User: What shape does this take?
Amino acid sequence: MLGNVDFGRSSGGGKKSDKLILAAVAVAAAGAVGLLIAAVLSDDKVEETPWVVRFQCLDVTCGHEWEPGAAQLKADPEMLLSPRVRCPRCKGMTGVQMTQCPRCKRFFVSARRLNPDAPFTPEMMKNVCPHCNTDIMQWQKEQREKKGR
Ligand SMILES: [Zn+2]
Ligand SMILES: [Zn+2]
Assistant: This one.
């Protein structure tokens, strides 16, 4: 069923509005981080945990995955903004925040988080779930449109 999903159409575009796209993407990313922090920080009563924040250690011999929980995120909200955080198991600065696919709910590390120093190209900003091949931004846009905004 996955073969024919045409989420990747934006990759064929020309050069003319690259700057505009980059600006829009940067603004969207900043907004998403802000919303995420707001969501985490306002989550005092953990009822159904609307958004799970999970990290993975990129050290090949460690590979630890952990969820810091609302209390720790509140104490250290910069965790969400830092390209690398300290792994609680091997103590290296090798932890990276994972993305939860809104569709299949599995976690992955996006290309941009793997390469935080890479240039902001639309290709790098793209967030495609390796499990179900969903383009996250595209998917969220479609969900918003479905809700009528
Ligand atoms: Zn580790
Ligand atoms: Zn997925």
